[in-house]
């Protein structure tokens, strides 16, 4: 059964504060402005609504929920546009997946975004998303000038997988999605959860080397 669109009735849900309702309405307006040529209002609001629900059960700061929902809905709508051929820029698209989307996949995304710049597209996700990014991962990435502190653990969704040309998995095993026609790689890396900063630095540097190799294989020039 398809998810219901974010109608006026949905905005009156009892689990939403007045501020959250207003924030979601504002987010819907921004997304409609951005994606009006690609999708109808119902699709845009449905993605915003379902994105909100994916975070609602584990948010530590409820007032941030509308912002997280808007950011994730925007990513999902961009992915859907790619999957449906509404974005045809020819840029390679990579999806990094691990279990909690809190350490390895976030560091990989950070490196890829830094090194590829506007020459390629990357996303990350988790089979069981955590509540926050691993602080040690934030610290060691900041040491090399990459800020991942504004990222957040999120799940993978069907449209994001459909849009990816390459799917890099890191320890999520059978929980990781398998779609035909995609290139898959498993990167065997230690899980940084519970490790000290020194150990996470080693993981960071290993990920950098693998991302650089991947970009070379994809014939993506290094930005800058």
TrEMBL record:
Residues 92-217 form the Phosphotyrosine protein phosphatase I domain. Gene3D superfamilies: 3.40.50.2300, Corynebacterium glutamicum thioredoxin-dependent arsenate reductase, N-terminal domain (1.10.8.1060). CDD domains: LMWP_ArsC. SMART domains: LMWPc (SM00226). Pfam families: LMWPc (PF01451), Phosphatase-like_N (PF21234). Keywords: Arsenical resistance. PANTHER family: ARSENATE REDUCTASE. This is Arsenate reductase ArsC. It comes from Nocardia acididurans.
């Amino acid at each position: 059964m398809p998810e219901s669109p974010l109608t006026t009735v949905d905005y009156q849900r009892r689990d939403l504060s007045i501020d959250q309702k207003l924030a979601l309405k504002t987010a819907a307006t921004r997304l409609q402005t951005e994606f009006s040529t690609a999708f109808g209002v119902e699709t845009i609001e449905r993605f915003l609504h379902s994105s909100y629900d994916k975070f609602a059960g584990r948010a530590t700061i409820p007032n941030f929920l509308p912002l997280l929902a808007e950011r994730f809905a925007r990513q999902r709508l961009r992915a859907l546009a790619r999957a449906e051929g509404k974005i045809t820029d020819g840029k390679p698209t990579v999806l990094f997946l691990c279990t909690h989307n809190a350490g390895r996949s976030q560091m990989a995304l950070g490196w890829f975004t830094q090194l590829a710049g506007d020459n390629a597209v990357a996303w990350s996700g988790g089979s069981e998303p955590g509540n926050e990014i691993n602080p040690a991962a934030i610290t060691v990435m900041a040491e090399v000038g990459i800020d991942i502190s504004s990222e957040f653990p999120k799940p993978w969704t069907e449209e994001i997988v459909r849009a990816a040309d390459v799917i890099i998995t890191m320890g999520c095993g059978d929980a990781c999605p398998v779609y035909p026609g995609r290139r898959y790689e498993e990167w065997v890396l230690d899980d940084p959860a519970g490790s000290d900063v020194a150990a996470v630095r080693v993981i960071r540097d290993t990920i950098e080397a693998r991302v650089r190799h991947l970009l070379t294989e994809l014939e993506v020039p290094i930005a800058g």
